[in-house]
Amino acid sequence: MKIWVPMDSAAKALGADEVADAIAAQVGPDVRIIRNGSRGMVWLEPLVEIDRGDGRVAYGPVTLDDVAALLDGTLESLGRVEDIPFFARQTRLTFARCGVIDPLDLDDYAAHGGLAGLRRAIGMDSAAIVAEVTASGLRGRGGAGFPTGIKWKTVAEAVADQKYIVCNADEGDSGTFADRMIMEGDPFTLIEGMAIAGLGVGATRGYVYLRSEYPDAIRVMEAAVRIARQRGMLGADVLGSGQAFDMEIRTGAGAYVCGEETSLLNSLEGKRGTVRAKPPLPALEGFLGKPTVVNNVISLATVPVIFEKGAQHYADFGLGRSRGTVTLQIAGNVARGGLFETAFGMSLGEVVNEIGGGTRSGRPVKAVQVGGPLGAYMPVSKFDTPMGYEDFDAAGGLIGHAGLVVFDDTADMLQMARFAMEFCAVESCGKCTPCRIGAVRGVETIDRIAAGDAGAADLLTDLCETMKDGSLCALGGFTPYPVMSALTQFPDDFATRREAAE
């Protein structure tokens, strides 16, 4: 008998370790307990799966009091995970193995399609590798949505004695956890994606910049890199190809601004995490002044499936210029929170109401912030907006890292706008004036509106325009998205203050 108990951080926070210990204390040596990643249905965690010889059957959420019934077969099951409606509606490409395999078993990884992409890439030249990524339509999943193939082509064509692959794992956006889930649940897919990127652009060294707040991800990634090196997946002779690529894990100190690629590079070099002016682009002068690919975890973790199944297979999913799948992270006041991977194109309303099940409180949905703390607040009137980069841009929003935070009708949108400005003021690196000073003035201006100053709303609009046009990076440049969306889409929350003062 095999029993799978997640070691994912979310599952552990809900008692998975205690459940695993209790199971281990009650079973014999003939039972194998596997600590897997999460299947992504957080409201069902700890989600335990048991194979008694007739396939994996799921139970959850499992408590300590349920363990005896779980083991004697009297606990009511959820059936197969693949048949649970939330899971059955997904198109799992990047997350196909997450929650299925033992994260640190390379043979288990290979048995589920792992390494097939790297083996194929080894037989291709640099130009063909870059062309494959370009043809897939893959775009940066960290926020900007920049075409991955163009970035790789720029680095591949740059002339230098050393090039680097840097993975941005500084996942700091509220309501996001896809990067963490991959690193904890399927780390070899990230390593494989980085190795393919290295072969494609001529880079022999790679770094994963991982935030210190993710101790489990750090532990799993460091162990996975050691195993990959021991098994010849990394090193001077990648899978016997005669080509070199090695990598290491670096831990950041927790600055939100280090999610911006140039701040990250400064931190990686041991400097203060401040934004660099562009040009030069990191693709030409990045880490230690050398050509550098900087990609998000999900971008790099998606590369192996593109090479395993072919660029066209991946590009066949999606909407317009948003190709492939989007890993939606559904959080906040929502009935069914978790990770949902689907082709671009599903409407925001479908995601919130059908997939997420509406609010956990049972009250009406008021707003959904998409794209982290710099994302716009989308009202219910915009719930027909398809999940696509250009579609969200046209609706005044941004998909960003695809995190969704749901709010019910008790949310005070003036206070949410104030939080956005306060967040920017606290997290600013201080390099540019619009962000450093503008965010502080923004908090003060919103406080004036709250106190009944009718003219302060126009001042806030002007301030947001200055921050948007003048900031050096997205922290100051995108903070106006949540502020202005709150002001324009939920005017009643601002007007009540003025009316009360009058």
The total of beta strands comes to 15
In percent terms, what proportion of residues is strand? 5-15%
Looking at the overall shape, the CATH architecture of the largest domain is 3-Layer(aba) Sandwich
Major sheet: arrangement of strands? 12-11-15-13-14
Round the mean pLDDT to the nearest integer and report it: 94
Which percent bin holds the helix content? Answer: 40-55%
Structural class: alpha/beta
Shape: globular
Q: N-to-C terminal Cα separation, in Å? A: 71 Å
CATH topology of the largest domain: Rossmann fold
Tell me the number of helical segments per DSSP (H or I, 4 or more residues long).
23
Using only CA atoms, what is the Rg?
A: 23 Å
In total, how many domains does the architecture comprise? 4
- Biggest pleated sheet: 5 strands, mixed
The top level CATH class name of the largest domain: Alpha Beta
Task: Pick out the low-confidence regions.
Answer: none
The CATH superfamily of the largest domain turns out to be NADH-ubiquinone oxidoreductase 51kDa subunit
How does the SSE layout of this entry go?
Blueprint: E1 2-4, H1 9-13, H2 16-26, E2 32-34, E3 48-51, E4 56-59, H3 67-72, H4 85-88, H5 106-111, H6 116-122, H7 126-136, H8 148-157, E5 164-169, H9 178-185, H10 187-201, E6 205-211, H11 215-230, E7 246-252, H12 261-268, E8 292-296, H13 297-309, H14 311-315, E9 318-319, E10 322-323, E11 325-332, E12 338-343, H15 348-355, E13 365-370, E14 377-379, H16 389-394, E15 403-408, H17 413-427, H18 433-436, H19 438-450, H20 456-470, H21 474-478, H22 480-489, H23 492-501
Parallel strand pairs: 1-2, 5-6, 5-8, 6-7, 11-15
Antiparallel strand pairs: 1-3, 3-4, 9-10, 11-12, 13-14, 13-15
